[in-house]
Each structure stands twice: as C-alpha cells, then as structure tokens.
Amino acid sequence: MFLVLAGCAASPRFASKGESTRSEPPSPKVQQDASAGETVSKETPRVKVPEGKALLTLEGVASYYAHEFHGRLTSNGETFDMHSLTAAHRTLPFGTQVRVTNLENNKTVMVRINDRGPFKEGRIIDLAMGAAEELDMIRNGTARVRLEVLEWGKGE
Predict the structure, then answer these.
(1) How far apart are CA 75 and CA 114, in angstroms?
(2) Alpha helix stretches (DSSP H) within the chain
(3) Is the peptide bond before 118 cis (omega within 30 degrees of 0)?
(4) What are the φ/ψ torsions at residue 140 (nearest 5 degrees)?
(5) Distance (Å, rounded) from C-alpha 33 to C-alpha 39?
(6) Beta pairing partners, 125
(7) CATH number, position 156
(8) Is the predicted pLDDT of residue 39 greater than 70, yes or no?
(9) What is the pLDDT of residue 51?
(10) pLDDT at position 140, please?
(11) Higher-confidence residue: 145 or 8?
(12) For the residues 25-46, what does the mean pLDDT come to?
C-alpha cells in the first residue's frame, strides 16, 4: 500500500545537492477554438502570434522565489541562483526564452525557463528574485504580467 501511495506523490521542484529531478517537460495543453479559428491555451484565454515576434503570449499573475531555494538544484539539474534571470513554468520546455512584462508598470525582463512551477493556483510563472527585481515586484510579491515566448527551448 505504501508503494502505491508513494507513486502518486507530486515530484518536488528541487532535489537535494547531488540528486537530479530531470524529466521530460510536459507538452502545453492547446486546443482549437472552432468559432474564432484561433489556438487557445488552457492556461490563459488566447494565444497570439503578432507580426512573427512572439511565438506565444500568455497573461496572468507572476510570483518569485529566492532564499529558500538558492543553491539547490532546479528541475533541469542546474543550481538555482536567486539573482539570475531565470524562471519556473509548468509546461514550457527548459531553455525557452520568455519576455516578461509587468502590466502594472510596463517594465520588462528576459528570462530563461529552467525549472517547474509555480505550484500555487492562479499563478503562471515563478521568477527568480533577480528577474522580479527588474520588474519592480519585490515589494508586492506578485504582479500581473504578460509572457511572450521569443524562442523555444530544447527541453534541456
């Protein structure tokens, strides 16, 4: 019985030093909106491809993570640096380059996806503290953001 229950447990965001949690990133859930003929992501209402610049655009709430995870391994096996311009996303492939815009002040930052998360309901991205500082969202802890995928990662 214990083995059955242990198999159902969620995998952790981080492993202890020397331990890897590397796995294949899940594919984003996308469906066709028959009425509009557009692609719709289950994560946000619409996926846009404006003038060939952004490959995918999402909007939602961002949060950040820092001290508690600094120096621990991320889901792709890298050591987490809270001062870096990296982020965690549930489904985007590792290595994906994303422009994040704080919709409250229009500040932007480029981040690379190297982790899985956020695990809190209603959030679409978890930024390293360095990226959150660039967006001026440290004081509030969260911000409404736009994500624009500019380059797909290879999942590494």
Answers:
(1) 7
(2) 2-7, 129-134
(3) yes
(4) -80, -30
(5) 6
(6) 62
(7) 2.40.40.10
(8) no
(9) 45
(10) 96
(11) 145
(12) 39
Contact present, 25 and 155 (Cβ < 8 Å): yes
CA pair distance 78, 81, nearest whole angstrom: 9
Residue 25 domain-assigned (yes or no): no
Domain count along the chain = 1
Helices (H), 62-154: 129-134
Question: How far apart are alpha carbons 50 and 15 in whole angstroms?
Answer: 38
Confirm if 83 and 128 have CB atoms less than 8 A apart.
Answer: yes
Tell me the pLDDT tens digit for each residue of 64-111.
Answer: 999 999 999 999 999 999 999 999 999 999 999 999 999 999 999 999
In 3D, which of 100, 65, 103 has the Cα closest to residue 84?
Answer: 65
The predicted model scores a pTM of 0.68
Q: Which two tokens stand for residue 115?
A: 């982790």
C-alpha to C-alpha distance for 16 and 19, rounded to whole angstroms: 6
Query: Considering the domain boundaries, does residue 12 fall inside one?
Result: no
Domain extent at residue 80: 48-156
Dig out the tokens for 134 from the structure. Answer: 């660039």
Is the residue at 104 inside a domain?
yes
Triad 79, 83, 85: Cα angle to 5°: 85
Whether 3 maps to a domain, the answer reads: no
